User: What shape does this take?
Amino acid sequence: MKKIITFGEILLRLSTTVGERLLQANQLNMNYGGAEANVAISLANFGYDVNMVSKVPDNSLGLAVEKHLKANGVKTDYLLKGGERLGTYYLETGIGERSAQVVYDRKYSSISMLVEDEIDFEEVFRDATLFHVTGITPALSPALSEITLLALKKAKELGVTTSFDFNYRSKLWSKDEAAVVFKQLLPYVDICSCGDKDAIHFLGIEEAAETLEASEKLSYYYAEIQEKYPNITYLSSTFREVLSASENDLQGNFYVDGILYQSKVHHINPIVDRVGGGDAFASGILHGILEGMSPEEVISFATAASALKHTVHGDCNVFSATDLQWFTANGSGKIIR
Assistant: This one.
């Protein structure tokens, strides 16, 4: 069984019910999530030996996080205890023409206070196949920016395949701050999830001609990224058309060996919960690569994973590889008897 490591913050999510704004709410729904945790849970559901590196407070919320990860098949051998608070975010659920809104309350969270000597990455990466991290983790503190770079360097030194999702969050840092860090991290990345705007804003790539189709523009940006960072073997992203907060069209993109592969367009209506859709897509890409699927199979599987994530509450995907294989083969709406 392949060993996978993810590194990042797991958060308490407090969300409104549909049709209610935060300023109206008298009660909120609790879930636990976070980009790297969501990917970890998806990959555990796909049958991998997944460990998450993180830090949570030594209190009932930290214990709840540990139980959440274990209940979803993720090992907590490298889940540190300490600090005073668990990062939290409030989600005002969108519907129709009203977009969802996020309010963060994660300053001074346990993981943001992490220091380098608390983690022995030599031990963490022992016998590991894959390491996954996102741009959210280095955004949490200058120390975590350095630790993320150290982790990627150590993973490469030990022969571990590395995966990085840009996952830029404007409420955590500026584009200029992110650009400096991303450029430091990318030389140590094998699998990269980013879109056309990421190429422009963070990597300084000149905008593609307006006359090009969306797929042609993306192929151009990905070719330019690989020119700058030839170590990156795979690139991926999604095209999303937001018809409303409750109805989206989703198409996946996967770039390998100079060719862009695209999934069919999934029409998702109604959306139960969009949060974690990108993480489900990322985990599907990683699964496809790890299992040696053809590029067409990789992007079909990954986009199906994201589409199905939109149909369940909470941050994490709860579907197995078998569920997704059945869905890609048979389509939606059928009764399974």
